[in-house]
Specification:
The chain is mainly alpha-helical and 197 residues long. It is built from eleven helices and no strands.
Length: 197
Amino acid sequence: MVRPRKESLRPVVERNDLIVENRGLLGFCLSRNSEAVRVIGEEAAGDIALDVLIRCAELYNPARGTQFSTIVVLSIGRRLRQEARRSRRRSRRRWEAARVVRAAELGDFDRLAETYQTDRDGAADGERRSLCVRLLACLYPRERRIVVDYVVNGRSFSVIAKEHGICRERVRQIYREALARMRLRAGDGDDVCAVLA
């Protein structure tokens, strides 16, 4: 058994001391970035702030002349704002997917088709999308959610599989079956469902 040298233990002790001494900065940083905390959630923001504090303690070099507290406050603020932006993007995608699914379930395809026709991708692509949205009505709810998650949200089959509690391959099979049903319903399949393929 090889014993570690005392020099190798010293940085770990210093790091732990920095974390314990500056733990009070977490509350200050969370209150200072209250907008980002509101978007992310208090528990998740606290975890992020603690992770950043630990990471800063590992990388801190006192020879550079910057105070540790300054580095921590700036780093935590930057990371919380990044996570808030990511969270907003995810919630927009979820909202869009929920809108598509809700419209498909209620049969309100005309209103949804209008929004896609004014899409920035152009009129032809908007028309194809509106046809695909109308075709969502022929799908079972589970198939509809998988198609919307994959196409609108851009999620991978792996992420969708975790959400539904099934394997990735089964999600792919359900997606392919849904496309086949939509093509059959559309009649001229390949052109209509090109958006989804």
